[in-house]
Specification:
The chain is an alpha+beta fold. Helix content is about 20%, strand content about 20%. It has one domain (about 1-20, about 35-65). It has one helix at about 50-65; strands at about 10, 20, 45-50. The chain starts with 7 loop residues before the first strand and ends with a helix.
């Protein structure tokens, strides 16, 4: 049985850009997050599990946008 991945927050250590990704299904789609910062081009992003509040907020924003 597939298990939905948890939401992840990606952050650039160079410029503090961040993005929280909440998967819609049981897998991340290529392009959900890149390996380099889209703002400054730093090559390595930090990632951590998103808090429940941030995951809910991000999901709500995605629903409103669509």
């Amino acid at each position: 049985m597939p298990i939905k991945p948890s939401a992840q927050t990606y952050r650039c250590p160079a410029c503090n850009w961040s993005k929280t990704v909440v998967p819609n299904g049981d897998a991340l789609i290529p392009g959900d997050i890149s390996s380099a910062c889209p703002k400054c081009g730093h090559k390595q992003l930090e990632s951590k599990k998103a808090s429940a509040i941030l995951e809910a907020f991000t999901s709500l924003i995605d629903v409103i946008r669509h």
